[in-house]
Every structure is written in structure tokens, then in C-alpha cells.
């Protein structure tokens, strides 16, 4: 297909970007001479470029405003959602072709049907494949970042999550951190600028020194380098979990309320997923009851198994 300018909408978070990598690469293979711009949060620009699939990032966070397209768009690709809002934003750019799921409310009937139970990676691969761009759902790897990791070879404990429903208790993260420290592991705690109090509490409860608390002190490229160089990542269903997948870093991932069948890592030996089998509201204001069914002892056991396998 001939296309001069392609605009892809994925104005979401870190994990959303990383799960869309196979679909983005499929678009790049199918349109090697096109200029592909990704409408996404500005902070994700370095990782987006690292995929090798996009030429630039147009800052966009959510659907409050149209993607800032500079000039005419030949192909618009909706990797953001099922519509109708995201479809309408792209249609307003008057592209020659819109690649998106079918949505009567947009209206748009040219794409496949949306499947709400589909894994996020498979969903976008299916969309672009239906439009003539075969995609490999396993094409998730990113190159190791050039940035120096702030704590190479550490165990990374990341207690934060976008919503309370997906936050395992700080006391349990601390118990895991303390157990791994007692094994002789170097343990660090990470978190974004709004998660410093949570990370400090985990570090304090685990008996870690102040230098182990990296929350609010790492840029996204530095966080990516930290995860790429880590011995193990322990976290919930977050963007950091997807970084571990992208760099094939061993991980213990705590799922709930969203099942790993929707957002979990590929079936690889280095990733251990803990899930109680209970669904819930991923945007809830309290930790999911199913997430609370996962004990610290289970996570410590899983972490030990992953580290033992890594050392063989």
C-alpha cells in the first residue's frame, strides 16, 4: 500500500504503548516508505522511537483534543479504542483511509468486530492484520536502553498502579522486599512522582536504606534501563510489568482485578503470574478482593523460583 503520511492514535499509558508494539511494527513493515507519526503522551517518545516503528511522536494524552496532525493524513489508524470518540477524532482529519474496528456509532463499518475479552496484544494485531498488515503478537522485544541503569543487577519492587483496585498492599510488597534482601539480593523500590509516599513506606517496612528508594528520581528512559538490567521485577498489572516483558527480564506479576488473559505477559518461563481467578472493576477505589487473596508468601516463593531458575 502506498501512503505518505500515517497517523496512529494511542494516546494512553506506558503499558498501552508496549502492548501495541507488534501492531506498530506490522504497519511499518507494510508501509516502509511512509512517515508514521504516533499520537501518544510526550513522555513516551523515547520508547516509541525505540520500537523502530514510528518516525515521531505527536503529543496527545487522552481524547480531549484532536491529534495534532501537521498536514494531510493519508492513513489514520485507531489503536486507541473501540470508538466512537476515538474514531471521530481521526475521521475529523479527513484521512484517505481509516483503519479501525467497526463502530456503528462513529459510524465506521470497514473494520472487524471488537472483542471485549481479547488480549490487548492480540486485539491490535488482529485489527492491522485484517487491514492487510500481518502482525506477530510475540514481537514485543525492545533494544536495551543506552541510558545507564541506576542500580544494575537489582531486584526491582514497584508497588504502584494506576488505580487502587490494582494496588497490592504496601505491607506485602515490603515483606517480599525484606525476604529477597535477606537472600542477599540488592532490592530497590520504584514509583512515579505521585507514588513517593507509597514507595518510601515499602522501603521503610522492608528495612531498606534511603538509597534503595528510587521513586520520583528516575526518568522513563532510566526506569527502562533499570528494568532491562534487573535480576527480577516484582509488581502488579502496570506498565513496569510490560517493560519486564519487553526486555525479557524475569518477573513476578500480581494480577487482579483484570485477568492475565487480557493484559498478561506471553507464556515464557521467566514470567510468573499470580492471579486468584477473580474479576473486578479495574478502576475501583479499593484493592480488588481477588488481588488481596494473593499472599506475600506466595510472591516470595514465586520470586525465589524465578531467581533460582535464572541462576542455573
Measured on Cα atoms, how large is the radius of gyration?
20 Å
Record the strand order, biggest sheet.
3-2-1-4-5
Task: Write down the domain tally.
Answer: 2
Quaternary assembly: single chain
Q: What's the helix-strand series?
A: EHHEHEEHEHEHEHHEHEHEHH
Structural class: alpha/beta
Highest CATH level, the class of the largest domain: Alpha Beta
What's the average pLDDT? 95
Taking the alpha carbons of the first and last residues, their distance comes to: 48 Å
Written description of the protein model:
- The protein is α/β, with parallel strands linked by helices.
- It folds into 2 domains: 5-130, Glycogen Phosphorylase B (Rossmann fold, 3-Layer(aba) Sandwich); 155-311, Glycogen Phosphorylase B (Rossmann fold, 3-Layer(aba) Sandwich), CATH 3.40.50.
- Helix content is 34%, strand content 14%.
- The protein has 12 helices and 10 strands.
- The strands form 2 sheets. The protein has a 5-stranded parallel β-sheet with strand order 3-2-1-4-5. Strands 7-6-8-9-10 form a 5-stranded parallel β-sheet, with helices on both faces.
- Strand 6 (155-158), helix 6 (170-182) and strand 7 form a beta-alpha-beta unit.
- The mean pLDDT is 95.
Amino acid at each position: 500500500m502506498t501512503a505518505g503520511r500515517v497517523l496512529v492514535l494511542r494516546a494512553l499509558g506506558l503499558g498501552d504503548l508496549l502492548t501495541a508494539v507488534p501492531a506498530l511494527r506490522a504497519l511499518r513493515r507494510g508501509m516502509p516508505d511512509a512517515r508514521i507519526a504516533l499520537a501518544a503522551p510526550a513522555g513516551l517518545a523515547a520508547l516509541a522511537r525505540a520500537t523502530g516503528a514510528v518516525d515521531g511522536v505527536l503529543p496527545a494524552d487522552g481524547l480531549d483534543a484532536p491529534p495534532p496532525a501537521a498536514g494531510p493524513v493519508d492513513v489514520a489508524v485507531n489503536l486507541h479504542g473501540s470508538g466512537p470518540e476515538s474514531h471521530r477524532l481521526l475521521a475529523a482529519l479527513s484521512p484517505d483511509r481509516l483503519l479501525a474496528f467497526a463502530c456503528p456509532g462513529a459510524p465506521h463499518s470497514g473494520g472487524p468486530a471488537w472483542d471485549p475479552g481479547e488480549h490487548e496484544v492480540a486485539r491490535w494485531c488482529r485489527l492491522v492484520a485484517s487491514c492487510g498488515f500481518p502482525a506477530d503478537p510475540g514481537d514485543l522485544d525492545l533494544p536495551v536502553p543506552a541510558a545507564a541503569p541506576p542500580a544494575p543487577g537489582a531486584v526491582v519492587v514497584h508497588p504502584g498502579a494506576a488505580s487502587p483496585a490494582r494496588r497490592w498492599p504496601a505491607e506485602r510488597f515490603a515483606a517480599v522486599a525484606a525476604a529477597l534482601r535477606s537472600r542477599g539480593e540488592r532490592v530497590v523500590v520504584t514509583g512515579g512522582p505521585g507514588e513517593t509516599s507509597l514507595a518510601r513506606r515499602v522501603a521503610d517496612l522492608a528495612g531498606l536504606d534511603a538509597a534503595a528508594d528510587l521513586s520520583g528520581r528516575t526518568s522513563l528512559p532510566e526506569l527502562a534501563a533499570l528494568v532491562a538490567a534487573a535480576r527480577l521485577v516484582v509488581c502488579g498489572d502496570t506498565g513496569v510489568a510490560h517493560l519486564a516483558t519487553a526486555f525479557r527480564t524475569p518477573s513476578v506479576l500480581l494480577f487482579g482485578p483484570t485477568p492475565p488473559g487480557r493484559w498478561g505477559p506471553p507464556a515464557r518461563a521467566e514470567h510468573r503470574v499470580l492471579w486468584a481467578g477473580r474479576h473486578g472493576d479495574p478502576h475501583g477505589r479499593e484493592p480488588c478482593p481477588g488481588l488481596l487473596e494473593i499472599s506475600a508468601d506466595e510472591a516470595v516463593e514465586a520470586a525465589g523460583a524465578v531467581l533460582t531458575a535464572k541462576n542455573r
